[in-house]
Amino acid sequence: MKWLLLGLTIALIVVHQDFWNWDKVNVAFGFMPVGLWYHAFYCIAAAILMWMLVAFVWPRQLENVEREVPGTSEEPSGH
Description:
- The chain is built from two helices and two strands, in the order αββα.
- By secondary structure, the protein is mainly alpha-helical.
- The protein has one domain.
- A two-stranded antiparallel sheet has the order 1-2.
């Protein structure tokens, strides 16, 4: 799964440079410029990829760390 997500990340980086849409002036769905339409779907794809990265390759040991509350440390304060 890690290698698949790495490949998807690289692919998303490559397709972000949408040079094939730079000169297009037609509209998608009758009202939206093609470049804006492309980037709207790109943002959705990026959000899905980020969810997949967190769900499948996030280091679980980071979730098991307890937060330290200021003023409750067991070290002597030196006063």
